[in-house]
Amino acid sequence: MNPELKGYILLSVIKMLVVFTVVLVGVALLTLLERKVSAWMQNRRGPNRVGWAGLLQPAADGLKNILKEETFPAEANRLLFLLAPAMAFIPALMLSAVIPFAAPLRLDFDFTAGPLGRFVHHGLMPMVVADVPVGFLFVLAISSMGVYGIALAGWSSNSKYSLLGGLRATAQMISYEVAMGMSLIPVLLLSGDVSFSAIILEQSRTLWFVLPLFLSFFIFLISGFAETNRLPFDLPEAESELIAGYHSEYSAMKFSMFFIAEYANVVTVSAMVATLFFGGWDIPFTKADESGLWYWVILSHVMFFVKTFFWIFFIMWIRWTLPRFRYDQLMALGWKFLLPVALAYIMVISGAIYVLQHVAGVSSPMTRALALTAISLVAGVLVFWVLDRGLIVSGSQPRHQRLEPDLLQNPLGRTPLGGRAAGVRVTS
Amino acid sequence: MAIGVKVMKRPEREASYVRATLKGMALTFKHMFEPKVTMQYPEEKSTRDERGTWTLSPRWRGTHRMLTDEQGRSKCVACGLCPQICPSNCIKLVPGEDEEGNRYPLIYEIDEFRCIFCGYCQEVCPEEAIHVGQHYENSEYTRGRFVYDLERLSAQTHAVSTLWDPTDPRGE
Question: In this model, does residue B166 exceed pLDDT 80?
């Protein structure tokens, strides 16, 4: 084995250990943070008994979950029942391997470690476990694998609630996967590359993509909520309808695995939003963060952490603000609003890039980004002031208007089919 | 239209979802910095006086207390009204009589597990001897410890409950 390869393997192993440890510990702390944030938003204090300010609460929960009894539902498919938590858990963790968490570090070493031989590394080391050239395509591919875990959990539990939760999760994730993929095409158009490193470099050269591609960001964020099965899209585990959805029958550590998977997905989506639309580790208004010096690398990592953490907080913030969607609203939002808007936006952006490049003859990427920002501003205004008029999520009003002739004849709102009372307008 | 039903004013069809979301988010964010309402229970407790934030209702009915006279004997005259009225049959009373003909309880036991804390015993007592008290921390290590005997009932020092008075329904 040549020394360069050995140096590469050594660095990769170190990065792997560090990244997965940090992600797992971070996920554990996120469960605490979620409870704290929910408490604060409801004028409560949240867990503060175990350890300083409740910091050891995740450890206590973990210990409890390891010691609890493992239950198996009667007639459950044992193999799939055991496999499902791992199937949900592993893709969620795999995703953290491809996201760059700091600027590349200039690292030169050349040493011999006894019988292991010589280790050599020269030049910039990308601060990512696997700098895959397929970039976010890998994320899209792996993140949709997470649905297998949920669908299998729902099916193998031999419980109607679990099955319904699993089916809902499958339909929801497949629906929103489409809009999510479509929302990323403008990013690809603008950066000309799918790899995260290239996307970040393009953003540090011009503007953060949230400005020129605002609608992409908006659609990606909403789809991200749906992909992680978080409120307002937590239909698969809607406790008021389905008890706990796909993990109703799970107990102890297997139940925890679903939770870890959910929070790992939250971390991934937040990191994706930060990377694709907010410049990743890029520190704005300076080029020095690409120099590879160790203190700039640390600063860029802090920058990445702050951005990711903000979006994690944002996801929790939304969870404790919005009520759950109805299932038809969820599907309507995905197929009738997000997907058409994403498709139209691809056409607008690709048309604008073509016009700017071949008709207007703009060659500077900065000018192009500014022009696209203006276009996105117009598109954003169009979406939020014209389309968002009872169309993003339709309430009960249109149905009520449809029902009105019935109601005149039948003031109690009881139709032969029953169950239409939601459309009754009470006049006092 | 039934009385007291709140009629919700539904948003019009033109309502903007994004704007409503932002309004909701502003509200929840504002709540993060408001004073917390959680009582830190073992450190903060419900107290009767008005100094603390947390007050226990004066009508709270907790575990019992037997009042005693100046000589430290219980005020109970073993009339038998409290076991008679007790709906959960949790009071065990064996009456005795001393040389002067005064009745007193030989055995007076209350099973706090059976008790439903209705307060009838306090209400019915002609001597104002047995009371339900303002006490709610009753943990024990054995079940047997929940049968309070006369000695234990007399040794309790917590405040007694002010029962609901029909002539003064608001407790003024």
Answer: no
Nearest Cα of chain A lies from the Cα of B37 at a distance, in angstroms, of 6
Q: Do B14 and A388 touch (CB under 8 A)?
A: no
ipTM of the complex in this document: 0.72
Domain-by-domain residue ranges, chain B? 64-155
Of A42, A389, A395, the CB nearest to B31: A42
Question: The domain B64-155 is classified under which CATH number: 3.30.70.3270, 3.40.50.2000, 3.90.1150.10, 3.20.20.70?
Answer: 3.30.70.3270
Give contacts of B28 with chain A, Cβ < 8 Å.
41, 317, 320-321
Length of chain A: 428
Peptide bond into A232 cis (omega under 30): yes
| List of E strands, B37-123 | 64-66, 91-97, 103-111
CB nearest B1 (choices: A37, A40, A428): A428
Range of the domain at A248: 61-111+123-390
Q: Does A45 touch chain B (CB under 8 A)?
A: yes
Residue of chain B whose Cα is closest to the Cα of A319? B25
The answer to whether A249 and A76 are in contact (CB under 8 A) is: yes
CA–CA separation, B32 and B18 (whole Å): 21
Shortest Cα distance from B10 to chain A (angstroms)? Answer: 8
Q: Are B115 and B61 in contact (CB under 8 A)?
A: no
Q: What mean pLDDT, rounded, does chain A reach?
A: 81
- Chain B CA closest to residue A232: B21
Burial B88-105 (b: 16+ CB within 10 A, else e): eebbebeeeeeeeeeebb
pLDDT at A314: 92
